[in-house]
Write a structure and sequence with these properties.
With 504 residues, the protein is α/β, with parallel strands linked by helices. It has 18 helices and 20 strands. The protein folds into 2 domains: 183 residues, Rossmann fold (3-Layer(aba) Sandwich), CATH 3.40.50; 236 residues, 3-Layer(aba) Sandwich (Rossmann fold), CATH 3.40.50.300. Helix content is 33%, strand content 24%. It has a 6-stranded mixed β-sheet, sandwiched between helices. A 6-stranded mixed β-sheet has the order 16-17-18-13-19-20, with helices on both faces. Helix 4 packs across helix 5. The N and C termini lie far apart (57 Å).
Length: 504
């Protein structure tokens, strides 16, 4: 347990929380001091979200102590937590889209003028002051609808400041942000720290944790593991504490026998998106598709699978043409496609694990037009077992699972089709380091079994660590085809910025 701290903004001691037979928190502890940014890290399922929800008043702890500025508190609602000075900034804020930016900030507590009418001038002026204080430019009068995730988060922070929140919890706030937006958010976070507020920053991105935070606490299996000043620890040490073992190799790539071409793409073109794209992926080969955000990587993959139309070119699988804009034909030909947004495009979140895994092959499982849960479970069981999906039963809803397990369910669903080509977009986005290693190990095993894999990733270490070849996309064109032995951060980034001659 961390050392008790006089003057701490937040202190949790041996907090326990169960949901039926499931122990979500068991002896969880945390001390956060004013004027600091405190990183909270752990694998999916480590208990971070449950701990946050207890502080936010969503859940009630079973036992243990919760102190806010030295005073024992026991929140029974989110309203009580907010009134006590706690604010949570989520990855995807929920604003009222039809109301203005200012109305969202002051909802339910608008300043009143004579006749008990809302004093809109005062309200807009206060919103202007809040944004100036945060060093950001936002029009207080514009509707919230259409705002970027980054701007929505800034509005939530402005609301927290207007309520004089002393503790701000930022839960995976950068997952949907661009680099410029992350920099702005971090500047705001540092300004709040310098005002003497306490911040908790939860993220799977170690570069962000180590650049932003002063202190980092590690959780594992619902328990407190350790707290260290960031300056006195390292990423490797933190990872080892998180997973309970040394993770010497996050990219367990093993050599595979490269066979004949499985996917052949020639002259693929969509006006204004990508132009004259051609490449091959061979059996047993992992081909990484790299490039800057907006370069056209995902759009190429979607066109190959038939989700999006293309204007010219051809796609062949094992020498046979695949009809354009026809995902069903692509599946029948032997393609599988795992999209970037697994929750919205890869899962039916209110359906069971078994139903999700059996989703694409349901027609082959039905008898006389009927499909039973037992048949779904029989088909899903081996794949869920192979991917070590951590769920007590195949009938558990996918929505209740961690991000890493949801990713495994989506992979299992497509592997159940027994494809010859797997297209996987951002295979480890939003999942913890331990699960990342498991996904990487699985991809390596699948390649070893002869599966052709096209992997799109924004994480350069992932591309370099897993790919046999790296295709680089810049402004919708392939600018490099680099063998694994020659692929370095420098060669890939040069190609991604058109500074390298095409390797073709």
């Amino acid at each position: 347990m961390p050392e008790p701290s006089a003057g701490a903004t937040l202190e949790l001691r041996d907090v326990r929380k169960t949901f039926g037979a499931v122990v979500a928190l068991d002896s969880a502890s945390l001390v956060v001091r004013p004027g600091s940014i405190h990183g909270l890290v752990g694998e999916n399922g480590a208990g971070k979200s449950t701990l946050v929800k207890i502080v936010a008043g969503v859940h009630h702890r079973d036992s243990g102590d919760l102190l806010l500025e030295g005073r024992s508190v026991d929140f029974s609602s989110t309203a009580e937590s907010k009134a006590a000075g706690v604010a949570v900034i989520y990855q995807e804020p929920t604003l009222f889209p039809d109301l203005s930016v200012t109305e969202n900030i002051f909802m339910g507590r608008q300043p009143l003028a004579g006749g008990r009418r809302i004093d809109r001038a005062a309200m807009y002026a206060e919103a202007e002051r809040l944004f100036t204080r945060l060093g950001v430019r936002l029009d207080p009068r514009r509707p919230a609808e259409g705002l970027s995730i980054a701007d929505q988060q800034i509005i939530e922070i402005a609301k927290a400041i207007s309520l004089d929140a002393r503790l701000l919890i930022m839960d995976e706030p950068t997952a949907a942000l661009s680099g410029v937006e992350v920099d702005r958010l971090f500047a705001v976070a540092r300004s709040l720290r310098d005002e003497g507020r306490a911040l908790i920053f939860i993220s799977h991105r170690f570069d962000e944790v180590f650049s932003l935070c002063d202190t980092v606490t590690v959780m594992r299996d619902g328990r407190y593991i350790a707290t260290h000043p960031v300056a006195q620890t390292s990423v490797d040490q933190t990872v080892a504490l998180m997973v309970g073992r040394e993770v010497g190799d996050l990219f367990p790539k093993t050599p595979a026998t490269i066979g004949e071409p499985v996917l052949s793409v020639e002259g693929l073109t969509t006006a204004g998106v990508f132009h004259d794209v051609g490449f091959e992926v061979r059996a047993g080969e992992i081909v990484g598709l790299a490039g800057l955000v907006g370069a056209g990587r995902s759009e190429i993959a979607r066109a190959v699978f038939g989700v999006d139309r293309y204007d010219a070119g051809s796609v062949r699988l094992r020498g046979r043409p695949v009809p354009p804009h026809n995902p069903r034909a692509a599946i029948r030909a032997g393609m599988a496609f795992i999209p970037e947004d697994r929750r919205k495009q890869g899962l039916v979140t209110n359906a069971s694990v078994a139903r999700n895994v059996a989703g694409v092959i349901r027609s082959s499982l039905s008898r006389a037009g009927l499909l039973t849960p037992r048949a779904e479970s029989r088909a899903a069981g081996p794949w869920a077992g192979r991917l070590e999906v951590k769920t007590g039963a195949l009938d558990m809803d996918a929505a209740t699972m961690s991000g890493g397990n949801q990713q495994k369910v989506v992979i299992a669903k497509w592997l159940a089709t027994k494809p010859s080509l797997l297209i996987i977009d951002e295979p480890t986005r939003g999942i913890d380091v331990g699960t990342k290693a498991e996904v990487h190990r699985l991809l390596s095993e699948l390649a070893g079994e002869g599966l052709a894999i096209l992997m799109i990733s924004s994480e350069l270490p992932e591309v370099l660590g897993m790919a046999d070849r790296v295709l680089v996309v810049c402004e919708g064109r392939l600018t490099a085809d680099i063998d694994r032995a020659d692929a370095t951060p420098e060669t890939v980034m040069k190609a991604a910025t058109r500074a390298l001659e095409t390797h073709r």
